[in-house]
């Protein structure tokens, strides 16, 4: 089963802390989203492996945009 990590709000990706195929655990920080001049850590909602990374550093994201897929 795959889980999509969605952007909780519009913003800019300022840091990505995982790579494709990395094993992650629930609660692990995946990336940092800057919105309204605040840095918002985005964490994994499950244990698994990174299947897709759909964003890059400096990308602008919309609310509910799929950023990462965990399998």
What features would you describe in this structure?
This protein has 71 residues and is an all-beta fold. The chain has a single domain, classed as RNA polymerase II/Efflux pump adaptor protein, barrel-sandwich hybrid domain (OB fold (Dihydrolipoamide Acetyltransferase, E2P)). It has a 4-stranded antiparallel sheet, with no helix packed on it. Strand 4 and strand 5 form a beta hairpin. It is globular. The N and C termini lie close together (6 Å). The mean pLDDT is 97.
- The gross shape turns out to be globular
CATH domain topology = OB fold (Dihydrolipoamide Acetyltransferase, E2P)
Oligomer: single chain
Widest sheet: strand order? Answer: 1-8-6-3
**Helicity level, as a percent range?**
under 10%
Major sheet summary line: 4 strands, antiparallel
CATH first level: which class?
Mainly Beta
Task: Work out the number of β strands.
Answer: 8
How far is the N terminus from the C terminus?
Answer: 6 Å
What class would the helix/strand composition place it in? Answer: mainly beta
Secondary-structure arrangement, i.e. CATH architecture = Beta Barrel
Unreliable sequence segments: none
The portion of residues forming beta strands comes to: over 45%
| CATH homology group | RNA polymerase II/Efflux pump adaptor protein, barrel-sandwich hybrid domain
The average pLDDT value, as a whole number, equals 97
């Amino acid at each position: 089963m795959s889980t999509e990590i969605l952007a909780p709000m519009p913003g800019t990706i300022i840091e990505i802390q995982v790579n494709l195929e990395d094993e992650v655990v629930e609660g692990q920080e995946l990336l940092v989203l800057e919105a309204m001049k605040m840095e918002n850590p985005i964490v994994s909602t499950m244990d698994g492996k990174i299947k897709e990374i759909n964003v890059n550093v400096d990308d602008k994201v919309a609310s509910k945009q799929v950023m990462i897929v965990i399998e």
